[in-house]
Specification:
It is built from five helices and no strands. The protein has about 120 residues and is mostly helical. The longest helix has 17 residues. The termini are far apart.
């Protein structure tokens, strides 16, 4: 049996992600670029907290969390997350986090696998 892997910071290079085939490691600069492309502009502290929580959960469980799970992890309610990440909230958070959506994810509210 392999020894346990020590926890890593969510931005540290080498963190395995469920990223699509490009297979380039995620960096905070990726999130900044994607946020600009999505029209969010500069990411604030609350948005970075959500991204970090999403990456930590993905590293822990092996898949991107649903919007309801992200709300539970961060302490923000779903409407609060929708204000921070307008539009396709869940898909945007997951994309900014450098992950692929969970199977069956809706893009906006919950919709993915049960938490």
């Amino acid at each position: 049996m392999a020894p346990p892997v020590p926890p890593r910071l969510p931005w540290k290079r080498g963190l395995p992600t469920a990223r699509a085939p490009a297979e380039r490691e995620w960096t905070p600069e990726d999130a900044l670029r994607l946020a600009r492309e999505a029209g969010l502009g500069r990411l604030g502290d609350h948005q970075w907290k959500v991204i970090a929580s999403c990456r930590e959960e993905a590293a822990r469980c092996g898949c991107a969390p649903t919007l309801v799970r992200i709300a539970a992890l961060t302490g923000f309610d779903v409407p609060g997350l929708e204000r921070l990440f307008p539009g396709e909230t869940e898909a945007l958070i997951v994309r900014l986090s450098g992950l692929r959506p969970s199977r069956g994810a809706s893009g906006r509210r919950g919709g993915g696998a049960p938490d």
